[in-house]
TrEMBL record:
Name the record gives this protein: Alcohol dehydrogenase 1-like
Listed PROSITE patterns: ADH_ZINC (PS00059)
Residue stretches making up the Alcohol dehydrogenase-like N-terminal domain: 12-134
Pfam families, alphabetized: ADH_N, ADH_zinc_N
UniProt domain Alcohol dehydrogenase-like C-terminal: residue ranges: 176-303
Gene Ontology, cellular component aspect: cytosol
GO molecular function terms attached to this record: S-(hydroxymethyl)glutathione dehydrogenase [NAD(P)+] activity; zinc ion binding
Keyword Zinc set for record: yes
One of the GO BP terms on file: formaldehyde catabolic process
Length: 350
């Protein structure tokens, strides 16, 4: 397969390390119509700038960078607003088949690029608004996780929910995003962090990130929100749904205390509608969503890299498997069966 840089505002990036995220898995096996193939998946990665187009002003050869599925152009109304981290110029979630310019070809045929990044490739081309420069001392096989899952979960707690010191939190779903949310609650000073998952094997890992209590809904004969309400004298202050399940989203909302409880939707799904009784919101609860943890990407990711380098956030502990890209199918099987948190695949020595 060849990657070519014919785009004036695009750097060519050599991918050094890339991780398998559930969004890649979801696109591959759960959602997308087959006409949106062939495609290069992958979006959680880090690399080194190989070369730049004539219109690139922010990067030079040799820069260490992280690709961003959520762009930050700094010019659109969303980028200029402090109320949002959206960007009107981000790549569409589902690639547009009729795009006039393709960044990949294989055997003479055009290949789509997932989320404008396509990091399951030794090289990729991205618009400079979808790349951010990072500390040259940062280990790429660790900080690659910050281009999606860890920022998503951590920021959902810190930026979106705005967890307060001394509060009680519940995190539903203990994949990488959920564990990052646990870490965010802990760093924000939560007194009690309740980890909820149907796989009890994940509880020890959640403890590493700061969880204080652990619940497997299968161990109870009543709805999980009732269990949480009993445990917390009326409900949690903050709940974060990180499983992408509409039923769990409702449970997370209903587990919040009336009057001020905040429930954040973090897990991604677009397959079903959500439902709740209006009285849940009338009673004073807030239901909100979070994309990429509320971080403005080009600004936030380097800050998170610095936090990691300063030992203020964890990354190494999320990595359960180190592989090479030719083992991608093994990584997919591990994720399919819930046997990994993050599989990081490397291309070359850093």
């Amino acid at each position: 397969m060849s990657v070519f840089s014919l785009f004036g505002h695009c750097p060519l990036v050599q991918i050094v390390a890339t991780a398998l995220c559930h969004s890649d898995f979801h696109y591959l096996v759960e959602f997308t119509p087959k006409e949106n193939f062939p495609i290069v998946l992958g979006h959680e990665a880090a690399g080194i700038v190989e070369s730049v187009g004539p219109g690139v002003t922010e990067f030079q050869t040799g820069d260490k960078v992280i690709p961003l599925y959520l762009s930050q152009c700094r010019e659109c109304r969303f980028c200029k607003s402090p109320k949002s981290n959206h960007c009107e110029n981000s790549a569409p979630p589902v690639p547009i088949k009729a795009e006039p310019d393709y960044r990949y070809t294989c055997k003479g045929k055009n290949v789509l690029q997932f989320l404008g990044t396509g990091t399951f490739s030794e090289y990729t081309v991205m618009n400079q608004i979808a790349v951010t420069k990072i500390d040259p001392a940062a280990p790429l096989d660790k900080v690659c996780l910050l281009s999606c899952g860890i920022c998503t979960g951590y920021g959902a707690a810190v930026n979106t929910a705005k967890v307060e010191p001394g509060s009680t939190c519940a995190v539903f779903g203990l994949g990488a995003v959920g564990l990052a949310a646990v870490m965010g609650c802990y760093v924000a000073g939560a007194k009690r962090i309740i980890a909820v998952d149907i796989n009890p094997e994940k509880f020890e890992k959640a403890k590493v990130f700061g969880a204080t209590d652990f619940i497997n809904p299968k161990d109870h004969n009543k709805p999980i929100h009732e269990v949480l309400i009993e445990m917390t004298n009326g409900g949690v202050d903050y709940s974060l749904e990180c499983a992408g399940n509409v039923g769990v989203m409702r449970s997370a909302l209903e587990s919040c205390v009336k009057g001020w409880g905040v429930s954040v939707l973090v897990g991604v799904t677009n397959m079903q509608d959500i439902a709740a009784r209006p009285i849940q919101l009338i009673a004073g609860r807030t239901w909100k969503g979070s994309l990429f943890g509320g971080f403005k990407s080009k600004d936030g990711v380097p800050q998170m890299v610095k936090a990691y380098m300063d030992k203020k956030v964890k990354l190494d502990e999320f990595i359960t498997h180190n592989m090479t890209l030719d083992q991608i199918n093994d990584a997919i099987e591990l994720m399919k069966h819930g046997k990994c948190i993050r599989c990081v695949m490397s291309f070359s020595p850093q």
